[in-house]
Amino acid sequence: MKKRLFNWIWILAFGFVMISCTEGEDMEPDDNQQLTNDLNFPFTLSGDESRYVMEIDGVEVSNYAEILNTLNTDKSISVNMWGPSNDFNFAGFNWIPLGTGTYEAGHDLGPGNGTFGNNLFMMGFVKKEGTKYYAYSAHDYGFLEEERIPESSATVKIITFDGKQTTYNFMNGTFSQFIGTVEGQFAGTFKTKDGKEVKVTKGQFRIVQKLPSGAEEVE
User: For residues 26 and 141, which has the higher predicted lDDT (pLDDT)?
Assistant: First the structure.
């Protein structure tokens, strides 16, 4: 209940500035290149509950997962994963291209909003014992050279992508949010700037986001 309330507060706070409903085109995935991480494990999540599960250095962690609103919903989704004690900023991937396919951290999405004329690059992060570890970059948009994390990696495979950024009227306001179902698998070697690392394996998420009851979609 607490997580749902937080989500609605977040949507109400940011919905007014996120009313764009532009639909982006699928980008060329990285399926044809050598992948850096093994995703050869079964996908096991099901049902209407949005959640993830992964192993960090062999220890399983699982909690709520969601797709965030960003300035670049026309070309990407950003997946956020809650951690122990409902740590909102526990793990996630920024700028996963729209559509099914396999994508590597560092995937170049081209020019993006909020980048001051630079390109967007897919990146990821995860926490262990309060320390944040990164894949590709410690920079949220991925374009700062000085924030690159050498020898880090992450692979994300989107196996189901059924939905779109949707604008709707609700409670006397107009909002925009991804509505639909996204399923994916992931793994990687995440590092700090000083070279400490964690291994993430057997990662998977299933995110189901529906229009709130009483909402009316804006065509």
Answer: 141
Residue 24: DSSP 8-state:
P
Rounded to an integer, the average pLDDT of 148-168 is 98
Looking at residue 219, what is its pLDDT?
Answer: 84
Q: Which secondary structure element, helix H or strand E, spans residue 14, and what is its range?
A: helix 2-14
* Single pTM value for the model: 0.86
